[in-house]
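assembly run, all chains below
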Amino acid sequence: MTQYRPDRSELLLTVREFLDALAPQLDGETRYRAQVCAFLIGVCMRELEAGIGPEDADRAAWSGLLGGADGSAADLSRHLCTAIRAGDLDTDFDHTLDIVLARTTAAARLVRPDKVSPHDAPSPSVSGISRPPGKRLT
Amino acid sequence: MKPSDPAREPDAFANLARAMRRRFGGAARLDNIIVPSLGGSNRTVVFDLVDGVARRRLVSRQRTYRGPDNPFIDDAHQFAVMSAAHRRGFPVPEPILLFDPEDGLGEGFVTAFVSGETMPNRILTGAAYDTVRPRLAGQAGELLALLHSIPASEVPALTLYPDSDDPTEAQRRRYDFYAEPHPAIELGFRWLERNRPSRGTAQLLHGDFRTGNLMVDQTGIVTVLDWECSHIGQPAEDIGWLCSRSWRFGHHDRPVGGFGQRHELMTAYRGAGGRDIQADEIRYWEIFGLVRWAVLNMMQAHGHIFGGRRSPAFAACGRNASVIEYDLLMSLKGLHQ
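ok done. output:
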Protein backbone atom coordinates (compact mmCIF):
# COMPACT_ATOMS: atom_id res chain seq x y z
CA MET A 1 0.00 0.00 0.00
CA THR A 2 1.35 3.39 -0.93
CA GLN A 3 2.08 6.02 1.72
CA TYR A 4 0.40 8.61 -0.46
CA ARG A 5 -3.22 9.56 -0.07
CA PRO A 6 -5.77 9.05 -1.48
CA ASP A 7 -5.38 5.33 -1.03
CA ARG A 8 -6.87 2.68 -3.34
CA SER A 9 -10.33 2.74 -1.76
CA GLU A 10 -10.42 6.52 -1.85
CA LEU A 11 -9.44 6.54 -5.52
CA LEU A 12 -12.24 4.11 -6.33
CA LEU A 13 -14.69 6.20 -4.35
CA THR A 14 -13.58 9.26 -6.33
CA VAL A 15 -14.34 7.49 -9.60
CA ARG A 16 -17.68 6.23 -8.33
CA GLU A 17 -18.73 9.68 -7.15
CA PHE A 18 -17.88 11.07 -10.56
CA LEU A 19 -19.89 8.37 -12.34
CA ASP A 20 -22.84 8.88 -9.98
CA ALA A 21 -22.82 12.59 -10.76
CA LEU A 22 -22.31 12.02 -14.48
CA ALA A 23 -25.03 9.42 -15.08
CA PRO A 24 -28.06 11.74 -14.70
CA GLN A 25 -26.59 14.01 -17.37
CA LEU A 26 -26.47 11.18 -19.90
CA ASP A 27 -29.18 9.53 -21.96
CA GLY A 28 -30.32 6.00 -22.69
CA GLU A 29 -27.67 3.39 -23.21
CA THR A 30 -24.76 5.65 -22.18
CA ARG A 31 -26.47 6.54 -18.94
CA TYR A 32 -27.11 2.88 -18.21
CA ARG A 33 -23.48 2.01 -18.85
CA ALA A 34 -22.31 4.76 -16.50
CA GLN A 35 -24.63 3.43 -13.80
CA VAL A 36 -23.34 -0.11 -14.31
CA CYS A 37 -19.75 1.16 -14.09
CA ALA A 38 -20.54 2.92 -10.80
CA PHE A 39 -21.98 -0.37 -9.57
CA LEU A 40 -18.83 -2.25 -10.63
CA ILE A 41 -16.67 0.23 -8.73
CA GLY A 42 -18.87 -0.46 -5.69
CA VAL A 43 -18.21 -4.19 -6.03
CA CYS A 44 -14.47 -3.52 -6.10
CA MET A 45 -14.73 -1.32 -3.00
CA ARG A 46 -16.62 -3.97 -1.05
CA GLU A 47 -14.15 -6.66 -2.10
CA LEU A 48 -11.24 -4.49 -1.02
CA GLU A 49 -12.85 -3.92 2.33
CA ALA A 50 -13.48 -7.66 2.76
CA GLY A 51 -9.81 -8.41 2.03
CA ILE A 52 -8.70 -12.04 1.85
CA GLY A 53 -11.32 -13.16 4.37
CA PRO A 54 -13.79 -14.57 1.84
CA GLU A 55 -11.13 -16.54 -0.03
CA ASP A 56 -9.81 -18.01 3.22
CA ALA A 57 -13.35 -18.90 4.25
CA ASP A 58 -13.98 -20.53 0.85
CA ARG A 59 -10.82 -22.60 1.22
CA ALA A 60 -11.79 -23.72 4.73
CA ALA A 61 -15.33 -24.56 3.62
CA TRP A 62 -14.33 -26.55 0.54
CA SER A 63 -11.58 -28.33 2.46
CA GLY A 64 -14.07 -29.32 5.15
CA LEU A 65 -16.41 -30.81 2.55
CA LEU A 66 -13.50 -32.69 0.99
CA GLY A 67 -12.40 -34.32 4.23
CA GLY A 68 -9.67 -31.83 5.07
CA ALA A 69 -8.04 -31.76 1.63
CA ASP A 70 -5.27 -29.23 1.13
CA GLY A 71 -4.92 -26.72 -1.69
CA SER A 72 -5.85 -23.27 -2.87
CA ALA A 73 -9.45 -22.11 -2.80
CA ALA A 74 -9.58 -22.41 -6.60
CA ASP A 75 -8.14 -25.95 -6.63
CA LEU A 76 -10.43 -27.10 -3.85
CA SER A 77 -13.44 -25.53 -5.58
CA ARG A 78 -12.61 -27.54 -8.71
CA HIS A 79 -12.26 -30.75 -6.69
CA LEU A 80 -15.53 -30.04 -4.90
CA CYS A 81 -17.32 -29.54 -8.22
CA THR A 82 -15.95 -32.86 -9.46
CA ALA A 83 -17.10 -34.60 -6.28
CA ILE A 84 -20.60 -33.10 -6.46
CA ARG A 85 -20.94 -34.12 -10.09
CA ALA A 86 -19.73 -37.66 -9.39
CA GLY A 87 -22.39 -38.02 -6.69
CA ASP A 88 -19.78 -38.42 -3.93
CA LEU A 89 -21.66 -35.95 -1.74
CA ASP A 90 -25.18 -37.19 -2.46
CA THR A 91 -25.56 -38.77 0.96
CA ASP A 92 -24.58 -35.47 2.54
CA PHE A 93 -26.39 -33.26 0.07
CA ASP A 94 -28.21 -31.09 2.62
CA HIS A 95 -25.06 -30.43 4.63
CA THR A 96 -23.14 -29.61 1.43
CA LEU A 97 -25.95 -27.29 0.39
CA ASP A 98 -25.76 -25.45 3.72
CA ILE A 99 -22.02 -24.92 3.43
CA VAL A 100 -22.12 -23.80 -0.20
CA LEU A 101 -25.07 -21.54 0.54
CA ALA A 102 -23.16 -19.84 3.34
CA ARG A 103 -20.24 -19.09 1.04
CA THR A 104 -22.51 -18.09 -1.85
CA THR A 105 -24.38 -15.73 0.45
CA ALA A 106 -21.10 -14.06 1.38
CA ALA A 107 -20.16 -13.72 -2.29
CA ALA A 108 -23.58 -12.38 -3.30
CA ARG A 109 -23.55 -9.87 -0.47
CA LEU A 110 -20.37 -8.33 -1.87
CA VAL A 111 -22.06 -7.94 -5.25
CA ARG A 112 -25.61 -6.98 -4.29
CA PRO A 113 -25.95 -6.33 -0.54
CA ASP A 114 -29.50 -5.15 -1.21
CA LYS A 115 -30.46 -8.57 -2.61
CA VAL A 116 -29.25 -10.54 0.41
CA SER A 117 -31.22 -9.20 3.31
CA PRO A 118 -29.89 -10.01 6.78
CA HIS A 119 -33.09 -11.72 7.90
CA ASP A 120 -33.21 -14.29 5.14
CA ALA A 121 -29.53 -15.08 4.97
CA PRO A 122 -28.80 -18.52 6.37
CA SER A 123 -26.84 -18.72 9.55
CA PRO A 124 -23.78 -20.83 8.84
CA SER A 125 -23.59 -22.59 12.14
CA VAL A 126 -21.15 -25.13 10.80
CA SER A 127 -17.70 -25.33 12.33
CA GLY A 128 -14.89 -24.05 10.19
CA ILE A 129 -17.08 -21.62 8.31
CA SER A 130 -16.70 -17.93 8.80
CA ARG A 131 -19.91 -16.07 9.25
CA PRO A 132 -20.54 -13.83 6.24
CA PRO A 133 -19.84 -10.20 7.03
CA GLY A 134 -22.73 -8.98 9.10
CA LYS A 135 -21.98 -5.37 8.41
CA ARG A 136 -24.15 -4.02 5.66
CA LEU A 137 -21.84 -2.71 2.98
CA THR A 138 -23.07 -0.40 0.32
CA MET B 1 -34.32 3.41 -26.25
CA LYS B 2 -32.36 6.30 -27.57
CA PRO B 3 -32.19 6.53 -31.33
CA SER B 4 -28.79 7.00 -32.85
CA ASP B 5 -28.20 8.55 -36.23
CA PRO B 6 -31.66 8.82 -37.67
CA ALA B 7 -30.92 8.96 -41.34
CA ARG B 8 -32.23 8.55 -44.82
CA GLU B 9 -30.45 5.53 -46.23
CA PRO B 10 -26.83 6.38 -45.52
CA ASP B 11 -24.17 3.94 -46.69
CA ALA B 12 -24.37 1.95 -43.48
CA PHE B 13 -27.79 0.75 -44.57
CA ALA B 14 -27.02 0.26 -48.28
CA ASN B 15 -27.12 -3.54 -48.05
CA LEU B 16 -30.41 -3.44 -46.18
CA ALA B 17 -31.88 -1.10 -48.78
CA ARG B 18 -30.65 -3.40 -51.56
CA ALA B 19 -32.17 -6.41 -49.80
CA MET B 20 -35.52 -4.61 -49.70
CA ARG B 21 -35.33 -3.65 -53.37
CA ARG B 22 -34.58 -7.26 -54.31
CA ARG B 23 -37.92 -8.28 -52.75
CA PHE B 24 -40.11 -5.24 -53.13
CA GLY B 25 -38.90 -3.66 -56.38
CA GLY B 26 -36.49 -0.94 -57.41
CA ALA B 27 -38.71 1.88 -56.22
CA ALA B 28 -38.61 0.71 -52.59
CA ARG B 29 -36.57 2.84 -50.23
CA LEU B 30 -35.82 3.13 -46.52
CA ASP B 31 -36.81 6.10 -44.41
CA ASN B 32 -36.86 7.11 -40.76
CA ILE B 33 -34.05 4.73 -39.84
CA ILE B 34 -33.25 4.15 -36.16
CA VAL B 35 -30.65 1.90 -34.56
CA PRO B 36 -31.91 1.22 -31.04
CA SER B 37 -29.54 0.37 -28.22
CA LEU B 38 -27.80 -2.86 -29.05
CA GLY B 39 -28.72 -6.17 -27.60
CA GLY B 40 -26.01 -8.68 -26.83
CA SER B 41 -26.42 -10.86 -29.85
CA ASN B 42 -28.10 -8.82 -32.55
CA ARG B 43 -27.89 -5.60 -34.49
CA THR B 44 -31.36 -4.15 -34.74
CA VAL B 45 -32.45 -1.55 -37.28
CA VAL B 46 -35.94 -0.05 -37.29
CA PHE B 47 -37.04 1.63 -40.51
CA ASP B 48 -39.92 2.56 -42.76
CA LEU B 49 -40.13 0.66 -46.03
CA VAL B 50 -41.52 3.16 -48.51
CA ASP B 51 -42.93 2.12 -51.85
CA GLY B 52 -44.76 4.89 -53.61
CA VAL B 53 -47.39 6.12 -51.16
CA ALA B 54 -47.25 2.92 -49.11
CA ARG B 55 -45.17 2.99 -45.96
CA ARG B 56 -44.65 0.21 -43.41
CA ARG B 57 -42.53 0.21 -40.25
CA LEU B 58 -40.23 -2.82 -40.11
CA VAL B 59 -37.44 -4.21 -37.95
CA SER B 60 -34.26 -5.86 -39.20
CA ARG B 61 -32.28 -8.13 -36.87
CA GLN B 62 -28.79 -9.24 -37.85
CA ARG B 63 -26.92 -11.71 -35.72
CA THR B 64 -23.67 -10.44 -34.25
CA TYR B 65 -22.86 -13.21 -31.79
CA ARG B 66 -21.41 -16.50 -32.93
CA GLY B 67 -19.47 -18.83 -30.72
CA PRO B 68 -19.23 -22.48 -29.75
CA ASP B 69 -21.22 -21.76 -26.59
CA ASN B 70 -23.87 -19.84 -28.52
CA PRO B 71 -27.20 -20.89 -27.00
CA PHE B 72 -29.28 -19.32 -29.76
CA ILE B 73 -30.93 -21.12 -32.65
CA ASP B 74 -30.22 -20.20 -36.26
CA ASP B 75 -32.10 -17.22 -37.59
CA ALA B 76 -33.73 -19.37 -40.26
CA HIS B 77 -35.19 -21.55 -37.53
CA GLN B 78 -36.32 -18.56 -35.47
CA PHE B 79 -38.03 -17.27 -38.57
CA ALA B 80 -39.70 -20.65 -39.09
CA VAL B 81 -40.96 -20.81 -35.49
CA MET B 82 -42.27 -17.26 -35.61
CA SER B 83 -43.99 -18.03 -38.92
CA ALA B 84 -45.63 -21.14 -37.44
CA ALA B 85 -46.80 -19.13 -34.43
CA HIS B 86 -48.06 -16.30 -36.64
CA ARG B 87 -50.09 -18.73 -38.76
CA ARG B 88 -51.85 -19.90 -35.58
CA GLY B 89 -52.75 -16.39 -34.53
CA PHE B 90 -50.16 -16.22 -31.78
CA PRO B 91 -49.08 -12.60 -31.19
CA VAL B 92 -45.62 -12.41 -32.71
CA PRO B 93 -44.11 -9.69 -34.91
CA GLU B 94 -45.18 -10.70 -38.43
CA PRO B 95 -42.23 -12.36 -40.16
CA ILE B 96 -41.55 -10.54 -43.45
CA LEU B 97 -38.36 -11.98 -44.94
CA LEU B 98 -35.28 -13.99 -44.12
CA PHE B 99 -31.91 -12.69 -45.34
CA ASP B 100 -30.04 -14.89 -47.80
CA PRO B 101 -26.34 -14.86 -48.74
CA GLU B 102 -26.96 -12.57 -51.70
CA ASP B 103 -28.11 -9.85 -49.28
CA GLY B 104 -24.64 -9.61 -47.74
CA LEU B 105 -26.20 -9.07 -44.33
CA GLY B 106 -25.20 -12.33 -42.67
CA GLU B 107 -27.81 -14.19 -40.69
CA GLY B 108 -30.97 -12.31 -39.84
CA PHE B 109 -34.51 -11.44 -40.80
CA VAL B 110 -37.06 -8.66 -41.05
CA THR B 111 -40.34 -8.50 -39.17
CA ALA B 112 -43.14 -6.01 -38.76
CA PHE B 113 -42.56 -3.36 -36.11
CA VAL B 114 -44.80 -3.60 -33.07
CA SER B 115 -45.04 -0.86 -30.47
CA GLY B 116 -45.63 -1.37 -26.78
CA GLU B 117 -43.80 -1.53 -23.48
CA THR B 118 -41.24 -4.17 -22.60
CA MET B 119 -39.41 -2.50 -19.70
CA PRO B 120 -40.14 -4.70 -16.65
CA ASN B 121 -40.18 -1.88 -14.10
CA ARG B 122 -42.71 0.13 -16.06
CA ILE B 123 -44.98 -2.87 -16.60
CA LEU B 124 -44.70 -4.10 -13.02
CA THR B 125 -44.97 -0.78 -11.18
CA GLY B 126 -46.20 1.90 -13.63
CA ALA B 127 -49.61 3.39 -12.87
CA ALA B 128 -50.37 3.18 -16.59
CA TYR B 129 -50.45 -0.62 -16.26
CA ASP B 130 -52.36 -0.89 -12.97
CA THR B 131 -55.53 -2.07 -14.69
CA VAL B 132 -53.85 -4.40 -17.18
CA ARG B 133 -51.37 -6.01 -14.74
CA PRO B 134 -53.92 -8.25 -12.98
CA ARG B 135 -54.87 -9.77 -16.34
CA LEU B 136 -51.36 -10.61 -17.51
CA ALA B 137 -50.96 -13.98 -15.74
CA GLY B 138 -54.20 -15.28 -17.24
CA GLN B 139 -53.28 -14.00 -20.65
CA ALA B 140 -49.82 -15.54 -20.38
CA GLY B 141 -51.45 -18.88 -19.56
CA GLU B 142 -53.72 -18.70 -22.59
CA LEU B 143 -50.83 -17.75 -24.87
CA LEU B 144 -48.63 -20.56 -23.61
CA ALA B 145 -51.46 -23.05 -24.13
CA LEU B 146 -51.86 -21.81 -27.71
CA LEU B 147 -48.14 -21.99 -28.37
CA HIS B 148 -47.84 -25.47 -26.88
CA SER B 149 -50.67 -26.68 -29.11
CA ILE B 150 -48.62 -26.06 -32.26
CA PRO B 151 -47.28 -29.40 -33.47
CA ALA B 152 -43.54 -29.59 -32.94
CA SER B 153 -43.35 -31.25 -36.35
CA GLU B 154 -44.01 -27.86 -37.97
CA VAL B 155 -40.42 -26.87 -37.21
CA PRO B 156 -38.53 -30.17 -37.44
CA ALA B 157 -35.12 -28.47 -37.40
CA LEU B 158 -35.56 -27.65 -33.72
CA THR B 159 -34.99 -31.29 -32.84
CA LEU B 160 -31.34 -30.81 -33.85
CA TYR B 161 -30.59 -28.51 -30.92
CA PRO B 162 -29.19 -29.91 -27.65
CA ASP B 163 -31.85 -28.06 -25.62
CA SER B 164 -34.49 -30.13 -27.42
CA ASP B 165 -32.76 -33.35 -26.46
CA ASP B 166 -31.82 -32.70 -22.82
CA PRO B 167 -32.02 -29.07 -21.63
CA THR B 168 -30.08 -29.74 -18.43
CA GLU B 169 -27.24 -31.41 -20.31
CA ALA B 170 -27.28 -28.52 -22.81
CA GLN B 171 -26.74 -26.02 -19.99
CA ARG B 172 -24.00 -28.17 -18.51
CA ARG B 173 -22.08 -28.31 -21.78
CA ARG B 174 -22.14 -24.51 -21.94
CA TYR B 175 -21.13 -24.24 -18.31
CA ASP B 176 -18.21 -26.65 -18.87
CA PHE B 177 -17.06 -24.55 -21.82
CA TYR B 178 -16.28 -21.67 -19.44
CA ALA B 179 -14.00 -23.88 -17.27
CA GLU B 180 -14.99 -21.87 -14.22
CA PRO B 181 -16.05 -24.18 -11.39
CA HIS B 182 -19.03 -22.99 -9.34
CA PRO B 183 -20.04 -25.37 -6.52
CA ALA B 184 -23.51 -23.78 -6.30
CA ILE B 185 -24.22 -24.45 -9.98
CA GLU B 186 -22.90 -28.01 -9.65
CA LEU B 187 -25.33 -28.56 -6.77
CA GLY B 188 -28.09 -27.23 -8.98
CA PHE B 189 -27.18 -29.60 -11.78
CA ARG B 190 -26.95 -32.52 -9.37
CA TRP B 191 -30.37 -31.74 -7.91
CA LEU B 192 -31.86 -31.46 -11.41
CA GLU B 193 -30.37 -34.83 -12.35
CA ARG B 194 -31.70 -36.57 -9.25
CA ASN B 195 -35.18 -35.07 -9.36
CA ARG B 196 -36.11 -35.29 -13.02
CA PRO B 197 -39.89 -35.40 -13.56
CA SER B 198 -41.21 -38.04 -15.91
CA ARG B 199 -41.28 -36.85 -19.49
CA GLY B 200 -44.56 -36.26 -21.26
CA THR B 201 -45.04 -35.42 -24.91
CA ALA B 202 -42.52 -32.82 -26.04
CA GLN B 203 -44.00 -29.60 -27.42
CA LEU B 204 -42.86 -26.49 -29.24
CA LEU B 205 -41.51 -24.06 -26.62
CA HIS B 206 -40.71 -20.38 -26.79
CA GLY B 207 -37.70 -20.89 -24.53
CA ASP B 208 -37.54 -17.32 -23.18
CA PHE B 209 -41.15 -16.50 -22.36
CA ARG B 210 -40.79 -14.00 -19.51
CA THR B 211 -41.23 -10.42 -18.40
CA GLY B 212 -38.99 -8.33 -20.64
CA ASN B 213 -39.91 -10.32 -23.74
CA LEU B 214 -43.66 -9.77 -23.34
CA MET B 215 -44.63 -6.52 -25.04
CA VAL B 216 -47.56 -4.93 -23.22
CA ASP B 217 -49.95 -2.10 -23.93
CA GLN B 218 -53.26 -1.01 -22.43
CA THR B 219 -54.96 -4.12 -23.78
CA GLY B 220 -52.45 -6.60 -22.33
CA ILE B 221 -49.75 -8.66 -24.02
CA VAL B 222 -49.62 -7.51 -27.65
CA THR B 223 -46.54 -9.40 -28.82
CA VAL B 224 -44.05 -11.97 -27.63
CA LEU B 225 -40.47 -11.19 -28.68
CA ASP B 226 -37.09 -12.97 -28.82
CA TRP B 227 -37.59 -16.45 -30.17
CA GLU B 228 -33.89 -17.24 -30.32
CA CYS B 229 -34.08 -19.87 -27.54
CA SER B 230 -37.06 -21.74 -28.99
CA HIS B 231 -36.79 -25.53 -28.86
CA ILE B 232 -38.79 -28.70 -28.29
CA GLY B 233 -39.40 -29.78 -24.72
CA GLN B 234 -41.71 -30.16 -21.77
CA PRO B 235 -44.37 -27.41 -21.58
CA ALA B 236 -43.59 -26.98 -17.88
CA GLU B 237 -40.16 -25.67 -18.88
CA ASP B 238 -41.74 -22.53 -20.39
CA ILE B 239 -44.03 -22.18 -17.35
CA GLY B 240 -41.23 -22.63 -14.81
CA TRP B 241 -39.05 -20.10 -16.65
CA LEU B 242 -41.81 -17.48 -16.48
CA CYS B 243 -42.21 -18.16 -12.75
CA SER B 244 -38.50 -18.25 -12.02
CA ARG B 245 -37.33 -15.82 -9.36
CA SER B 246 -35.13 -13.89 -11.76
CA TRP B 247 -38.08 -12.64 -13.81
CA ARG B 248 -40.05 -11.19 -10.90
CA PHE B 249 -37.76 -8.19 -10.67
CA GLY B 250 -38.12 -8.15 -6.90
CA HIS B 251 -41.91 -8.62 -6.81
CA HIS B 252 -41.81 -12.02 -5.16
CA ASP B 253 -45.38 -11.74 -3.92
CA ARG B 254 -46.33 -12.10 -7.59
CA PRO B 255 -44.30 -15.14 -8.67
CA VAL B 256 -45.52 -15.21 -12.26
CA GLY B 257 -43.26 -12.72 -13.97
CA GLY B 258 -43.67 -10.25 -11.10
CA PHE B 259 -47.28 -9.65 -12.16
CA GLY B 260 -49.44 -12.61 -11.11
CA GLN B 261 -50.07 -15.80 -9.20
CA ARG B 262 -49.29 -19.35 -10.31
CA HIS B 263 -52.93 -20.46 -9.93
CA GLU B 264 -54.06 -17.65 -12.27
CA LEU B 265 -51.52 -18.74 -14.86
CA MET B 266 -52.36 -22.43 -14.60
CA THR B 267 -56.14 -22.02 -14.50
CA ALA B 268 -55.97 -20.05 -17.74
CA TYR B 269 -53.46 -22.52 -19.21
CA ARG B 270 -55.70 -25.51 -18.54
CA GLY B 271 -58.79 -23.60 -19.58
CA ALA B 272 -57.20 -22.93 -22.96
CA GLY B 273 -56.36 -26.58 -23.49
CA GLY B 274 -52.98 -26.79 -21.80
CA ARG B 275 -51.82 -29.88 -19.95
CA ASP B 276 -52.48 -30.29 -16.23
CA ILE B 277 -49.08 -29.63 -14.67
CA GLN B 278 -48.38 -30.28 -11.01
CA ALA B 279 -46.78 -27.71 -8.70
CA ASP B 280 -43.73 -29.93 -8.15
CA GLU B 281 -42.99 -30.00 -11.85
CA ILE B 282 -43.27 -26.23 -12.12
CA ARG B 283 -40.90 -25.87 -9.18
CA TYR B 284 -38.45 -28.24 -10.89
CA TRP B 285 -38.35 -25.99 -13.93
CA GLU B 286 -38.07 -22.87 -11.79
CA ILE B 287 -34.91 -24.41 -10.30
CA PHE B 288 -33.75 -25.30 -13.80
CA GLY B 289 -34.42 -21.68 -14.78
CA LEU B 290 -32.13 -20.37 -12.06
CA VAL B 291 -29.35 -22.74 -13.15
CA ARG B 292 -29.84 -21.75 -16.76
CA TRP B 293 -29.86 -18.04 -15.94
CA ALA B 294 -26.66 -18.36 -13.90
CA VAL B 295 -24.98 -20.11 -16.85
CA LEU B 296 -26.23 -17.44 -19.26
CA ASN B 297 -24.71 -14.78 -17.02
CA MET B 298 -21.42 -16.69 -17.14
CA MET B 299 -21.75 -16.68 -20.93
CA GLN B 300 -22.05 -12.90 -21.04
CA ALA B 301 -19.04 -12.47 -18.75
CA HIS B 302 -17.04 -14.93 -20.86
CA GLY B 303 -17.95 -12.97 -23.98
CA HIS B 304 -16.79 -9.80 -22.27
CA ILE B 305 -13.44 -11.26 -21.21
CA PHE B 306 -12.62 -13.57 -24.11
CA GLY B 307 -15.16 -12.99 -26.87
CA GLY B 308 -14.58 -9.37 -27.75
CA ARG B 309 -18.12 -8.42 -26.70
CA ARG B 310 -17.02 -5.69 -24.33
CA SER B 311 -19.72 -4.19 -22.17
CA PRO B 312 -19.99 -3.03 -18.53
CA ALA B 313 -23.29 -4.89 -18.29
CA PHE B 314 -21.68 -8.15 -19.44
CA ALA B 315 -18.88 -7.64 -16.92
CA ALA B 316 -21.53 -7.21 -14.22
CA CYS B 317 -23.22 -10.44 -15.36
CA GLY B 318 -20.19 -12.44 -14.25
CA ARG B 319 -20.56 -11.21 -10.70
CA ASN B 320 -24.34 -11.29 -10.84
CA ALA B 321 -24.05 -15.06 -11.18
CA SER B 322 -23.38 -15.18 -7.41
CA VAL B 323 -26.73 -13.52 -6.70
CA ILE B 324 -28.55 -16.00 -8.95
CA GLU B 325 -26.71 -18.84 -7.23
CA TYR B 326 -27.86 -17.46 -3.88
CA ASP B 327 -31.46 -17.52 -5.15
CA LEU B 328 -30.91 -21.04 -6.48
CA LEU B 329 -29.62 -22.46 -3.20
CA MET B 330 -32.22 -20.61 -1.11
CA SER B 331 -34.87 -22.10 -3.41
CA LEU B 332 -33.40 -25.59 -3.07
CA LYS B 333 -33.56 -25.21 0.70
CA GLY B 334 -37.18 -24.12 0.44
CA LEU B 335 -36.40 -20.71 1.94
CA HIS B 336 -37.40 -18.96 -1.27
CA GLN B 337 -40.69 -19.75 -2.97
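Residues 124-138 of chain A have pLDDT under 50 and may be disordered.

The helical segments of chain A are 8-22, 28-50, 53-65, 73-86, 93-111.

not gonna interpret more than that til we talk
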